[in-house]
Fold:
Amino acid sequence: MTKGKESFIFGVDLDGVVGDFYKAVRIIAAEWLNKPVEELTTDVSFGLEEWGIDGFGGYDRLHRFSVTQRNIFRDMEPIAHAPAVLRKLSNAGIRIRIITHRLFLKYSHRTTITQTVDWLDNYDIPYWDICFMNDKGAVGAHVYIDDAPGNINSLRKMGCNTIVFSNSTNRDLPGPRADNWFEVESLVMEAREEWRTGTAGLFTV
Structure:
């Protein structure tokens, strides 16, 4: 399970990867914009410009409303199979390290942290560490998973092995990528085996 005394660390983003953020924020945005939810496309880019939120104060205002008034980080649903697969990976000896940049708006940090921990506990999502930070590469992990193009590109430029979790915001990025959590499981187990044996493969360019 370990290489010497070292554990294999899986760095896991939350929004759009473990939590179904885009589904939850779409419902909240429809209320905020006073539009039928069907008018808001699911084919979005990072920043949700397709919904016309700029005329209502932009993404930061929608995000603050979603967190402080609609408890998005407490109430959103997990992405299918994510909690169960994370439990399985943890049981296999992989150290789950949650790495999320949720604290980018002032004066909502306490609410954000409380909702995040409550949500993780509510869905029995295992983790050894939780890091709230923008520079995800500064937090050591053997393999990362993220959906945000900026984060993925930044991690890869730093030489961090990074899996893309597929959605409409990142379809142009090269793999390795996972379209669902069963594929995540396979990729992480493959990466762990390569780490244990010192062989190249999944992330070899």
User: Anything to note?
Assistant: Helices lie at 21-33, 58-68, 72-75, 82-91, 109-122, 149-157, 181-197.
